[in-house]
Amino acid sequence: ALVHKNTKHQLSGSFRRSDGATLNSDFKTGKAFYQGVAESDLVDINWQLGYSNQKYGANTFYSAKYDDQYEKNQRILTSVQAKTKGWFTFAPTVYWNRTYDNFQLIKGKPAGENFHMSDVYGANLNAHFSSVIGKTAFGAEFRNAGILSTNLGKPLAKDLYYTHKDNRTNISYYLEHNIILDKFTASLGVMANMNTALDHKYRFYPGVDLSYRPTNNWKLFASWNKALRMPTFTD
Fold it and tell me: Rounded to whole angstroms, what are the CA distances from 189 to 24, 68, 205, 209, 213?
């Protein structure tokens, strides 16, 4: 780590390997990560850059029929975030991730082998403030995910290295309010979400969380939430 006036820099890395305790469970993993921070009276800015490379035996990960499956992954990630100070906090973020994936149904053989390159990038704007009625937060996010693949997605020209592609965009808005009293806490929120992989319509996902402490040793709580999870292209 390096600290100079109002900036901080931190660099870390690791490498792990194993021959595996069972058939085809060996792995090699290398990681490197850098993070920087710049602080001022009005705003803090932090940025990061990461890289990982891993190879591992995927014994029956995806099918019990094949015990010699193998996978290689490389990932690059980067993001920049700013956060203002004061009674009203505003925190914009931009990010980009790229992943290379090579799956081998039978280690070292081309039969059933797949290659993928996926990109995820986006930006989100979050804000919150406190008042006499509690803490209010709201924000929006734009997220795009795309993949080039040898078998996933829509067909491309056959003379290309990647023969398939797909892409989808997710846009969401949220509003949340928290009420914190002496023994009672309530959190109410709602998110509006649109994903082009489904359609171009917004769906609403509300949520309510309530808690009450009759004594310092007991806490009663109840919650109800509606949510949606979109799997990644390679899930």
Answer: 46, 47, 8, 9, 22
